[in-house]
Amino acid sequence: MKRDESRGLIIGVTVGVVIGIFIAISALFCIKFRKSRSQIGNSSSRRNSTVPFRSSSTNTCAELSGSTVGPGSPKLSVEDGHGPALWMEGKKRKNTISVSGIPKYSYKDVQKATANFTALIGKGAFGPVYKAQMCTGEIVAVKVLANDSKQGEKEFHNEVLLLGRLHHRNLVNLVGYCAEKGQHMLIYVFMPNGSLSSHLYGENREALKWNQRVSIAIDVARGLEYLHDGAVPPVVHRDIKSANILLDRSMRARVADFGLSREEMVSRTSTSLRGTFGYLDPEYVSSRNFTKKSDVYSYGVLVFELIAGRNPQHGLMEYVELAAINTEGRSGWEEVADSQLEGSFDLEELNDMAALAYKCVNRVSRKRPSMRDVVQALSRIVKMSRSRKHHSKKFSVEGSGDLDARSEARSSISENTNHQRSESVDSVSDLPEV
Ligand SMILES: Nc1ncnc2c1ncn2[C@@H]1O[C@H](COP(=O)(O)OP(=O)(O)OP(=O)(O)O)[C@@H](O)[C@H]1O
Ligand SMILES: [Mg+2]
């Protein structure tokens, strides 16, 4: 009997131990599985958190919708054929290890695409720029960081990290990069119509029409508005100038060159002056403190450059200041109009744009409008000019005057206008009203 009891005990203990081991193994598996799931979850949420775009752009800023979210997103801009998603397709997939989602290319691939670095487009402070055709058939611009360049590795990494996060239809988007054999290269969307400066000052170029100049001013304003108000954290460009505005096939403008860009949060001050003579905010020159409003100043100079067709490095702003003495309210700016326009421009539109640009170049940065204010004001100016054209058509058809109504509208705008540089433009209400 005792023997039976002890046998039962042994069997019981053995079964218990087996069950225990089984439960322990199952628990271990469970823990491992849950851990790996949470890791996947973490990495995807990390990825989402690096997307710098406000999910709900304000409706006052129509063009913030022109932004596209980072690589991997279904919303990625493939519409213009330059979205990184396109680049990640095909047999070169193994090369697409990337910093912040930007495809990385091997030196060999880039060498082949540029026909051994022979198709030179131009050379800037960063280094030479080559035209290239990638294996996908895509035409791109490859910017090679020169070894003797004043701009160095820091700018390179800054640009890759920065542009990896920024996508907008009015920015020259980065579509790839190469860091190999001591060489650093940035691969951009190719802009077939080159730089704005080449159109304003290049020989054998047809003069830009007034409407093209207006649309370029709007495109640049939208690109900058996105950098200032759409990107999180905000980005200041620091080198807005006509050489850094590039034009696509249909002459739509995009802001290029983020080599001098800095996230405002990271570096608000620097010891040496950066940017381009002629476009530099006087307040930045004296304080060495570069802000969004310094970009606004450069933008104002750029708008005057578009109106006058004069190089800021050759006395544009002195010319503007002289003209400002004679401008009454909002009128009189036609005096600075580019002679190449041959008088073909909408006079009121030109005056409104110049008045807005003059606010942007106010010596006191606080009194300059924000880029969002500028975009809104430009939209109103264009809307107003369209409605004037529509009315004048109607007027000529009906043969009766709504002239009074139109002049009334003009005078209400003029009442809001004051070319004095001391005027505050911090609020939207100070800007041209429709
Ligand atoms: N994505 C692009 N598509 C077409 N042409 C480009 C592109 N990027 C640059 N270029 C052209 O290459 C040339 C050199 O450009 P780069 O930006 O290096 O110099 P820059 O703008 O003249 O001066 P900086 O170095 O001060 O910016 C310019 O003529 C420019 O128009
Ligand atoms: Mg440039």
UniProtKB/TrEMBL annotation:
Residues 40-70 have a biased composition (Polar residues). CDD domains: STKc_IRAK. It comes from the Eukaryota. The chain crosses the membrane at residues 9-29. GO terms for molecular function: ATP binding; protein kinase activity. Residues 115-381 form the Protein kinase domain. The keyword Glycoprotein does not apply. Keywords: ATP-binding, Kinase, Membrane, Nucleotide-binding, Receptor, Transferase, Transmembrane, Transmembrane helix. InterPro entries: Kinase-like_dom_sf, Prot_kinase_dom, Ser-Thr/Tyr_kinase_cat_dom, Ser/Thr_kinase_AS. SMART domains: S_TKc. Gene3D superfamilies: Phosphorylase Kinase, domain 1, Transferase(Phosphotransferase) domain 1. Residues 385-394 have a biased composition (Basic residues). Residues 40-81, 385-434 are annotated as: Disordered. SUPFAM superfamilies: Protein kinase-like (PK-like) (SSF56112). The keyword Ribosomal protein does not apply. This is Putative leucine-rich repeat receptor-like serine/threonine-protein kinase. It comes from Carex littledalei.
